[in-house]
Design a protein that fits this description.
The chain is of the alpha/beta class. The protein contains 16 helices and 16 strands.
């Protein structure tokens, strides 16, 4: 299995720290607002990575944090007159609902910042003791970047004069312009008592402390893979790595992975531009699996340009998978190994090559339909197709729905109830051999643009 490492900027063989095991940490959401498409893209990328690692027989431990204490959160608490827990739990629940709708698996470990304060204080104290951090007269604590000879080795960033000047103006209490806050003193709002001062931790300390608490092992590296959005490479991941390096004398991660930005019609998604697309709104108009398929359809390192025309075209591609599933509806899935499954795993094991993977899926669907058109009773192709679709469900997370339920999406409850009542009346008419009434009801359903399919397990329907 190969992965692209953001630090070396090369594709490398994945060789875990511990043979047969894989540890993965991904930066999660800051819960002061609803999840947007950028959150969804990142979550989908690492959901796919976990699936592929498991398919390659790695024992995976996956952690994704929740930032539930932050200046933005404190500000919104005041605006809405809510407690910290009331506000953050509302958005944690919303985030989980949205991710569940996309079929994204929950992480094995999901630490909250508020539950990790002691771990952060321990890390900061260690850095102060070792001379890598210092306290200011105001009670703030800063990491001394000049004491880390490898600072900027993760992002390979070069601090320019403009950058330096802006940082100097930002805080004159810092020893060096690039120094960053580990702890900030606050006299009001949510705050914690420490030996440094009463205040709150800096964002960059959170993930480093959580990794040390939940995942780190002894050796050259603490964990196998650290991931997140491309915007986190600097300063967030750079600063995480610096803290851990100086506190533990080891590198934080062996491999660093970053997914591209999500843009809307070519613009980088930004609330300041007014084009942030909340996931909850997209889920009102499109099935979660349609969004999963669309957002997964470009390589994870590429920027993703979201527009509805492409989304509709992507849905038609997914529809073909469900048409095949409908064609084989009611048949039992057997454990059938195929060349398609081998090729799919090989493609995804090559740095999550999704373009090749979806092309293989398209070919499999076309081949199955062509074979069944020529020989509808071909039992081998039926068994293989069902097994291949089950493998797609496991590895890519597509095709988990009943084909009939999938094509019912977007129909309001009143119309659904009307359709179900008509189907019940039709079934009763057929039972009484009143075929005239049965045919009339079928025509009424057709007029509603609804097609029905009678099976041994009952009558199923979908919107045409």
């Amino acid at each position: 299995m190969t992965l692209y490492d953001s630090v070396s900027k090369t594709k490398q063989d994945f060789i875990p720290i511990t043979p047969g095991k894989a540890t993965l940490y991904v930066c999660g959401p800051t819960v002061y607002d609803d999840a947007h498409l950028g959150h969804a893209k990142s979550a989908l990328v690492f959901d796919l990575l976990v699936r592929v690692l498991k398919a390659n027989d790695f024992d995976v431990t996956f952690a994704r944090n929740i930032t539930d204490i932050d200046d933005k959160i404190v500000k919104k608490m005041a605006e809405l007159n809510l407690s910290l827990e009331e506000l953050t739990q509302t958005y944690i629940d919303a985030y989980h609902r949205d991710m569940d709708a996309l079929g994204i698996m929950r992480p094995d470990i999901e630490p909250k910042a508020t539950e990790s304060i002691d771990a952060m204080i321990k890390l900061i104290s260690s850095l102060i003791e070792k001379g890598h951090a210092y306290k200011t007269q105001d009670g703030d604590v800063y990491f001394d970047t000049q004491k880390d000879a490898k600072y900027l080795s993760i992002s390979h960033r070069v601090q320019d004069q403009e950058d330096t000047q802006s940082r100097i103006e930002e805080n004159t209490a810092k020893k060096n312009p690039a120094d960053f806050a580990l702890w900030k003193h606050f006299d009001e709002g949510v705050r914690y008592e420490t030996e440094f001062s009463v205040g709150r931790p800096g964002w960059h300390t959170e993930c480093a402390a959580m990794i040390e608490e939940h995942l780190a092992v002894e050796g050259e590296y603490a964990i196998d893979i650290h991931g997140g959005g491309a915007d986190l490479l600097f300063p967030h991941h750079e600063n995480e790595a610096a803290q851990h390096r100086c506190s533990s004398n080891q590198e934080l991660a062996k491999y660093w992975m970053h997914n591209g930005f999500v843009k809307i019609d070519g613009e980088k998604m930004s609330k300041s531009l007014g084009n942030s697309f909340f996931l909850k709104d997209a889920l009102k108009s499109y099935h979660g699996e349609v969004l999963r398929f669309y957002l997964s359809s470009t390589h994870y390192r590429s920027d993703f340009n979201f527009n509805e025309l492409d989304l509709l075209a992507s849905k038609k591609r997914l529809d073909k998978l469900y048409r095949l599933k409908k064609r084989l509806f009611g048949m039992k899935v057997m454990d059938e190994k195929t060349d398609f499954q081998t090729s799919l795993l090989e493609a995804l094991s090559d740095d999550l090559n999704i373009s090749k993977s979806l092309a293989l899926m398209d070919e499999m669907i076309s081949h199955a339909n062509e074979t069944l058109d020529a020989n509808p009773k071909d039992k081998l192709i039926k068994r293989q197709s069902l097994a291949d679709m089950a493998y797609i469900e496991k590895l890519l997370g597509f095709g988990l729905q009943s084909p009939f339920e999938y094509f019912q999406f977007g129909i309001d409850e009143d119309l659904k109830n009307k359709i179900e009542n008509l189907i019940e009346k039709r079934s009763a008419a057929k039972k009484e051999k009143d075929f005239a009434s049965s045919d009339a009801i079928r025509d009424e359903l057709l007029a509603l643009d609804i097609s029905i399919m009678d099976t041994s397990e009952g009558t199923f329907w979908e919107k045409n």
